[in-house]
Structure formats: structure tokens, C-alpha cells
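REQUEST FORM: STRUCTURE PREDICTION
Request ID: SP-0412
Submitted by: Lab K.M.
Chain count: 1
Length (residues): 410
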Amino acid sequence: MRKGHFTVVMAFLAVFCIVSAAVAEDITDKLSITGEIRARVEGDNRDFRGDTKLYSFGLLRTRVGLGVQMNPHVRAFVQIQDSRQIGENLLGSGSLQDDKNLGLHQGYFYADSIFVRQLYMQVGRFEFAKGDQRVFGAVDWSNIGRTWDGALLGFRHGRVDAQLFGFIQNERRIESNDDLQTFGLYTTIEEPSIDFFFVWDRDNRTNSDSKRYLDRFTVGLYRHGEFADFDYTSNLAYQFGNINFDAMDIAAYLVTLEIGYSPQLVSPRASRAALGADIASGDDKSDDKYKVYDNLYYTGHKFRGHMDYFVSSAMPGLNDFYLTTMFRPISTTSINLHAHYFMANVDYNSLVDGAKTSAVGEEIDLFFTHKLHENLAIQLGGSMFFPSDDWRGQGADPAHWLYLQMTASF
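STATUS: Completed
RESULT:
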């Protein structure tokens, strides 16, 4: 049986078992069903060439989730997802072809009061979003989204919630230990609202000297809060360890800060303006240290511009200085405008004359969100990017991108 088929079969078996158990024991009042159908059409002209035509494509994501509270201490959740580019199969959407897009997005159980009241665990496949998602994010904008295979063990007491976690990113070979793994500790403290985290990424591929390809450690904190009409969020992270079979030491950092203002005299949180900076270190290759900050598992589309030019971790690093505004004329509608000024964290060689420069470009994102009904929302947006000649070459044209998205959920 193919791996994709096996996953779908197991997912449906899990759902069938949960529903059957619920009916047999008459616990249907403990079941919860959730779902989402999201359709998005995009118009894309992000190649910095004014002579190319805007091309369009559509995306469709469908999710159905079933949860059951088996007893006061144990619950389970299974979520099936179909993710596709509209019309993507070979014979078209009106054909009889099986496109095999269905799969398990989440499937896990959660149990608390393990030995002691404060201890809990979660095992299976699940989303793992923390803080403002600058380090760990679910990437909801993606037509697939990010989930993890693994487990976490948590301890919750008073204002403190600490989670030990272990995830398998890539099980390369059953007969060896060449896996790509992520382990760590994430601790949240309420009042003050501050999170501390430690992440260990380990790539177990080894060379002839038995040295691992990657041992990267990330330590940091996330802080957020409010005072009067102002709010703030900040991330600080530092990465160390070694990469490329111990050939280079890692020394990289991330600093983010956003300060927002929401005038309460008009209506609470009806409008907001914010200034922010997102600074990720880069490497000028002046020594034997690897200084590029790895963005880890963040929700890329939420940060560094909606056009997604900088989702990955670039060698020169990136400094993003931005302004965001949000206005809510009525309770069901919001209008958002974001402006970004991008520059490299370390100078790079210009594509025009080879001179050292940090210029990258500017981006404008404008989008509207409106709630048509209780369970139906629409979003319309567009972006423009104005590149520097040094970054994209002499005569590079502005880039454009548009989208329309509708989401029905229950």
C-alpha cells in the first residue's frame, strides 16, 4: 500500500473508531466537529519584469476535525485535510482521476493529571504555535500548514506552563539513526507575559569522523504586554552550536520589537498603528563562524512582508523596519496597510557595480477583511515591491501580487 493511501486509511479508521465508541457508549454530547473550506485566487507578477503578464491560480483547502472528550482527563482529536491547487490533476477537476490529496493534518491524544495533577502530555501529530509565531508557527496562510510528529510533556502550575517536546522532522532510514530531530523546552509565564525557550535541532547524518552534520541550539525569549493605549511584542534569540560536520561554529541572533498604539477614546481596539523592527543576523564570510540566523519554524507570511520574498534565511541576513495600521470602520470589517523597508543585515556585492551595499527595497501591503456571515469571511489584498537596483539588477521593475480569499468555517 502506498504511504499516502496508508495515511488516509489510518485517519479514517481513527475517525470511525472515535465515532463508533461515542455511539456505543452514548457520549455523543462529548463529541465536537469542526471544519473549514478555504478558497483563494492569486494574481502573481513577482518576477520584477514589467513585460511579463500577471498569471493567476487558485488554491483550495478543506479541513474536517473530530474531537472527543473521553473522560475529564483524556481527549483525542483527528483532523483530515485536502489541500490542492484548483484543477491540478492531469485530466482536470471534471475527470475521474484520483488525485490523492487527502491526508492526516492532525491526529493526537491529550491527557492531564499524569501521576500528579500538574503533569500532562500530548502525543501524535499536531500544530505547535507559540508566542507571536516568530519562532514556532502553524503557518495558516499556507495551503497545507505546519504540523509536527512527536510528543510533549508539560507541567502546569499557577502562572507557569513548561513543555518539554520532541519531534521527528525526517525519519531518513529505519535501519539507521540519520534522522533530523528537534527537541526543546518552551516555558510560558503569565503576569508578566513572558516566554522562555530552548530549541535543539539535530541532524544525525555523520561523516567519516562520526561528527554530526548539525547541532544547533537556540535560546531566547518572547515578551508581550499592554500599558494604557499602547501594546508591545518582542523576540530575542541567539543560536550557537556547529554545522557542516563541525566545520563551522554557529553564532547568530534575532531581535524583534513592535510597539502599537490603539486610541481607546474612539472604541477599544477599533484602530491600531504600530512601528516595528525585525532584525536577523547575516554572514559576511569574514571568519569561520556561521552567522546566518535560521528562521526555524516561524509563520513566514505573517512577518517580513506578504509577498514572501524573505521567508527563508538569506546569507546577508535581513533588517525589516515597518509601519502597520489597522482601522475597523464597523465590527465586521477591517482595513490594513503595512509598509516595509528592507535592508541586508550585512553588506553584499551590488549587482550593478559590485560595490558593497545593504539596499534591498520597499514593500506595501494593503488588505481588507469582512465578515459576510457568522461563519463566512472574505479577504481581499494586494502588494507591491519596489526593489533596489543593487539587489535585483539595473532596471528591475516593481513587482505586484493580488489575492481574493473566502473562508467558511464551523
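NOTES: The longest strand covers residues 356-373.
Reviewed by: T.R.
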